[in-house]
Specification:
By secondary structure, the chain is an all-alpha fold. The chain has seven helices and no strands.
Amino acid sequence: MVDDVEREHLLQGVAARLVWLRARAGYSQEDAAALAGLSRTGLGKLEHGRSRPTKDSLRDLASVYAPDHPQVEYWNLCKLAGTSLRDSHRRLSPAHKPATVRTATDNLKAVLKTMERLRVKAGPDLTKFDAGAAKAIAAAEQAVRIAQAREDLLQRLRENPENGPDSGENVG
């Protein structure tokens, strides 16, 4: 449970940053939560300062929101969370597991196969179909990039855990 003082600290720090990062990435709360392996409710609580973040949740959100520099964003989020940061202990249901590269790639292949079948059925009027298809492909490709970034980050952190937010390094 988060008291009023801690909630205000979270709202001004890590919660505000999470909301800003999600808006910048263009994700809905539901999409961002799914990509990070969180529930939409859990992400909502983090964004409203009603829950203390875990290291795992911040690491996963950093890999979703900042796939080009997830470790730097992870450290920034941890620093903003301050003493409210909890050690990680996540219990995920199978429905909330983050996508792996293989799963995301398989999903992209399935989308492409389905789109090809629909394209044949659509016939000459492909304008609406093509717009929806481009959006679906872009979303699927982004899911693959995010999954790869997450796997790369987690692998680097497993190989060198002393470079985490508790290492004393300044993240600016």
